Amino acid sequence: MWTPLLVACKGGHVEAVKRLVNSGAKIATVDKDGATPLYVASENGHAGVVAYLLEKGVDVNARKKDGWTAMMIAAKNGHVDVLKELLKHKADINAETEEGWTPLILAAFHTRFPVVKFLVSSGANVSKKNKNGMTPLHIAAANGKTDVARYLVTRKKVNIEAVNKNGVRFLAKHLKAY
């Protein structure tokens, strides 16, 4: 069930969020899927609401029922300003979904190039593998995300010889395209 606080967070209405919280709205409320006000604001790119909620002490690494965090959804949806706020409050930059997808892998898959650059510059693990053994570079290359793949290839800590669970190596399969 959507509470007035969740609706205000979804809409990015900072003043309404403040009024609701000051009037006693439960900041730890969740919807039927376990989405917190922080998750909802992050999903919709509302950095001002995110900053306010974090100042109020919400759990920056809270997970929905499916295991997703605010960091993951902000990366997937391309919200760099939200990611900056989350990282200021010690969000886990390498948090994983049940399938092992990190915010960086999600950003690479969804072609969120500014997010990829921001996460890499902020210390995300560029060689972290998901449950299928796919790194952000594998994901980008295998899905035709050429700008992202080109960028990742140039990063010093990227293992361009990483092998996924099927024995596929980035170099062997994709380098010709770049």
Automatic annotation (TrEMBL):
ANK repeats lie at residues 1-32, 33-65, 66-98, 99-131, 132-153. The keyword Repeat applies. Gene3D superfamilies: Ankyrin repeat-containing domain (1.25.40.20). Coiled coil: none annotated. InterPro entries: Ankyrin_rpt, Ankyrin_rpt-contain_sf. Keywords: ANK repeat, Repeat. The keyword Repeat applies. This is ANK_REP_REGION domain-containing protein. It comes from Enterobius vermicularis (Human pinworm).
